[in-house]
Amino acid sequence: RALEPFKGFWCFIGGIGGFEHSSDPQEVVRMEVKGDIGCDFQPTFFTYKYEERKTPSVVLYFHGSIHGVPTPNPLYVSDYKLVPIEEALRLKLGFDHNNILTKFWQHTKK
Fold this sequence. Notes:
The chain has helices at residues 25-37, 85-88, 97-108; strands spanning 40-52, 56-67. The chain is of the alpha+beta class. A hairpin with a 3-residue loop joins strand 1 (40-52) and strand 2 (56-67). The protein is globular and about 35 Å long.
């Protein structure tokens, strides 16, 4: 991640800027992926989490597949890496992404 908080950590792609252009969460996540790594993304909703940050927030989590060759936007992304989920579970991730990834892995193994 190229920005604080969690600068230098591995993190999921995310952000809220897309909501300035659309109120559809799937469209917003497609815009965020496109803006961060230059790829098209076909999202499927996974889960959400309520958080108290500067203001109360609902964070939505999606999974899906990317199409294209990743080209990180250096304003937001310092590096990218595609890894098997087993390896990703061992990485030190920013925010609560380790917990969300663990939850996703448990869900997919059912």
